[in-house]
Design goal:
With 92 residues, the protein is largely without helices or strands. The protein has one domain. It contains 1 helix and no strands.
Length: 92
């Protein structure tokens, strides 16, 4: 498990992330949409869980009861100019 913002590993991956939990390295809030496994921009309320409440700032702490830490964040770096084309780059 790692911080969604600084990408540094978090020490205790077994503890439930509390509403006020912060990254010990960078101080970023951890109970945020950006750190949640259900965060999915483009879905209703940018969430895969139907009927969730609207959260204005996805990078600050919230009180969502459906929050689950994203233990497998995407490591792919997409081409900023054209994310679709970056899927077909030759990485050899």
């Amino acid at each position: 498990m790692q911080c969604w913002k600084c990408k540094k590993p978090l020490d205790d991956a077994t503890v439930k992330i509390g509403f006020r939990a912060c990254c010990p390295k960078c101080g970023a809030d951890l109970h945020t949409c950006s750190a949640c496994k259900y965060y999915s921009p483009g879905k209703p309320n940018d969430c895969l869980v139907p009927g969730t409440e609207f959260i204005r700032d996805r990078e600050t702490a919230n009180f969502c009861e459906d929050f689950k830490i994203n233990t497998h964040p995407t490591n792919k770096k997409l081409d900023d100019k054209n994310p679709f084309n970056s899927l077909f780059k030759d990485n050899t």
